[in-house]
Specification:
The chain has helices spanning 23-30, 75-78, 85-92, 102-115, 121-127, 138-150; strands at residues 2-8, 11-17, 49-52, 55-58, 71-73. It is an alpha+beta fold.
């Protein structure tokens, strides 16, 4: 085990973990940040998506030893009160159904809007191409991302 210093949601944390422990388990089991979900464990569904220095990353595929000085943002850190434009748009466009994939999708949308506040349908579709939503709310996701971008 080694000691790792992580910046998560703007706060510094020290965790003792094996170097190959996935960030997902550090977040959920050591820092009690359970918004990021375990979906597939192979980086193919997007349920565990977080931001690393503002870029989308699948936390099940990133080891704690690979984080270094990158800033980690989880759904809990996007806004303290649900006031992020994307979170508001998610509700306004009735995106959530079962909710399991929602945190990962919102974080992917946040990364996209950070790079491009006015993405095209094709850019949104590319971003969400591997995000699995078993409830099939893909059109609502697209609408919510566009609405949130319009408010930026």
């Amino acid at each position: 085990m080694a000691l790792y210093k992580l910046n998560v949601n703007g706060s510094d944390h020290s965790v003792e973990a094996l170097p190959d422990m996935p960030l997902l388990w550090v977040l959920r089991d050591m820092l009690d940040l359970t918004g990021s979900k375990f979906g597939c464990g192979i980086g193919a569904c997007g349920a565990c998506t977080v931001l690393l220095d503002g870029a989308e990353a699948q936390s099940c595929q990133v080891t704690v030893s690979a984080i270094g000085k990158k800033k980690v943002t989880t759904i809990e850190g996007l806004s303290k009160d649900g006031s992020h434009p994307l979170q508001k748009a998610w509700i306004e466009h009735d995106v959530p159904q079962c909710g399991y994939c929602q945190a990962g999708q919102i974080m992917a949308g946040a990364a996209l809007l950070h790079k491009n506040p006015h993405p095209t349908d094709a850019e949104i579709d590319d971003t969400f191409a591997f995000h699995v939503c078993r409830c099939g709310t893909y059109q609502r996701v697209r609408d919510a991302v566009k609405a949130a971008g319009a408010k930026k």
